[in-house]
Write a structure and sequence with these properties.
38% of the residues lie in helices and 22% in strands. By secondary structure, the chain is an alpha/beta fold. The termini are far apart. It binds NADP nicotinamide-adenine-dinucleotide phosphate.
Length: 487
């Protein structure tokens, strides 16, 4: 890899404003998913380094939370500007460690930066309340204060944006942060730290600990009494484990977990709009996003036409290394991911699904899965119950609105849902009935910094972005002012 700006490539942890190796000198490798080649070798931090980072974050807390909201806002705004000034460099690093095509990587950098910008503005709007008191000599005042040291654990699929939207909200209100990025993609997080330092984030306020023993680092972050909040994005299985671990010290938590998004197409939908929406919502990051469509539920009257048009579009993908300009879909993150997608397709075919296109590992290489379209999917198949996390379209058929809704909601997950219909009453009815934290109606571009991102059911708790996102990082304190006499 030859990044345009090598100052952004860091191979040590960032703690207390210093770049540091692991105490035992251990290293771990970061590989390029497109080629399997080594991108970098990094300091392999563990529980010991996590503890040091927590202590640094705790020591930095009083001065950071004592800054005025405007001062924190200005630092965050400089960070936002620096990220956008380095968009191309950051995108290249992201593609090298994560595999997504460069155009998407540039989009992720801008998307992550938009949260830093947003929370730099929201920093100044953390308002309290004055509430009518039950007696004339008292006043009830409510203030909002930072929760304290925040531990952030983030996944490999959006290594810049998932961290940016947590850290920006936490820092905006005066919390300090210890970030643990995914071991597959730590370089994007470390590059953010370089720019944060340049923006003026003081030592200890934002720390990055990377290593390949997630369990050990996670245990320290969830057990240490000085950490007052854990914010996690990742799988539901790991989220549940972290929730259990956080219970011991009753930490606040935000959990952005897995999804199983339904995409409903009603007979009265605008077919072309539905196909365009489906392509955008299914294939971003080769199908590896939490809000990717998992199940296409299509009403019987439009089923064949939708399947045929979608297959036409899916056939246009060009697989390859995301860094090459004509590539439109990159590899999956690693061989295990390819094997899982393959098993799920085989399970579906074994239970009666028909392959319209694709269906196997691509000839491009073992890390690539063919864009696939399956018809006649049914609720007995794994693709109905589990996150596919790959470029596989599975088309289920339904007759009535009630039947379609029952199928859509037949999942313990509740992150995103989408549906296409031109009937205005149905837009309200179905929008209200879908069990999901986010619903796209004739639209799949649902994620932006102004809107509350998050799930219900086993897809998690808490919201990121929007005016609600800041609430996850503050404690409410009520002060009762007594002895106030009349004049
Ligand atoms: P994952 O396996 O749960 O890993 C996520 C993070 O947790 C990584 O940093 C990982 O570190 C760490 N981790 C793993 N085991 C841990 C443990 N025992 N203790 C502490 N930390 C641990 O998920 P993933 O495969 O990276 O990401 C895909 C999942 O994330 C999907 O389910 C997707 O839907 C979900 N996701 C949700 C959202 C949302 O906003 N709701 C957004 C994006 C992704 P290592 O990498 O070092 O193992």
């Amino acid at each position: 890899m030859s990044p345009l700006n090598s100052k952004l490539i860091k191979t040590q942890c960032y703690m207390d404003g210093c770049w540091q190796d692991a105490a035992d000198g251990g290293r771990f490798e970061v590989l390029n998913p497109a080629s399997g080649e080594r991108v970098a070798e990094l300091a392999n931090a563990g529980a010991k380094e996590a503890k040091l980072a927590i202590e640094a974050a705790h020591a930095a807390l009083p001065a950071w939370r004592a800054k005025t909201a405007k001062e924190r806002s200005q630092i965050l705004h400089r960070w936002f500007r620096l990220v956008m000034d380095h968009q191309e460099d950051l995108a290249q690093i992201l593609t090298a460690e994560q595999g997504k095509v460069l155009a998407e990587a540039r989009g992720e950098i801008a998307y992550g930066a938009s949260y830093i910008e947003w929370f730099s503005e929201e920093a100044k709007r953390v308002y309290g309340d004055v509430i009518p008191a039950p007696a004339g000599d008292r006043r009830i005042v409510v203030i909002k204060q930072p929760v304290g040291v925040v531990a952030s654990i983030t996944p490999w699929n959006f290594p810049n944006a998932m961290l940016a939207r947590k850290a920006a909200a936490a820092l905006a209100v005066g919390c300090t942060v210890v970030a643990k990025p995914a071991s597959e993609t730590p370089l994007s997080a470390l590059a953010l730290a370089v720019l944060g330092e340049e923006a003026g984030i003081p030592p200890g306020v934002f720390n990055v600990v990377c290593g390949d023993d997630a369990e050990a680092i996670g245990r320290e972050l969830t057990a240490h009494p000085l950490v007052r909040k854990v914010t996690f994005t990742g799988s539901t299985a790991v989220g549940k484990l972290l929730l259990k671990q956080c219970a011991e010290t009753v930490k606040k938590t935000s959990m952005e977990l897995g999804g199983n998004a339904p995409f409903m197409v009603f007979d009265d939908a605008d077919l072309e709009a539905a196909v365009a929406g489906a392509m955008a919502a299914k294939f971003r990051n080769a199908g590896q996003t939490c809000v990717c469509v998992n199940r296409f539920l299509v009403q019987e009257g439009i089923y064949d036409a939708f399947a045929a048009r979608l297959a036409e579009e899916v056939a246009k993908f060009k697989l390859g290394n995301g860094a090459e300009s004509d590539t439109t879909m990159g590899p999956l993150i690693h061989g295990k991911a390819v094997a899982k997608v393959k098993e799920m397709v085989e399970d579906a075919v074994g239970k009666g699904a028909e392959v319209l296109m694709g269906g196997g590992v691509s000839a491009v290489g073992p890390e690539y899965f063919e864009p696939t379209v399956l018809i006649n999917a049914s609720a007995e198949m794994r693709i109905h119950a589990e996150e596919i996390f790959g470029p596989v379209v599975a088309l289920f058929r339904f007759k009535s609105e009630a039947e379609g809704l029952a199928l859509a909601n037949e999942t313990p997950f509740g992150l995103a849902a989408y549906f296409y219909t031109q009937d205005a009453s149905r837009q309200w009815r179905v929008g209200e009935a879908l069990e999901a934290g986010m619903v796209g109606i004739n639209e799949t571009g649902i994620s932006n910094e102004m809107a509350p991102f998050g799930g219900i059911k086993e897809s998690g708790s808490g919201r990121e972005g929007s005016k609600y996102g800041i609430e996850d990082y503050v404690e409410i304190k009520y002060m009762c002012m007594g002895g106030i006499s009349g004049s």
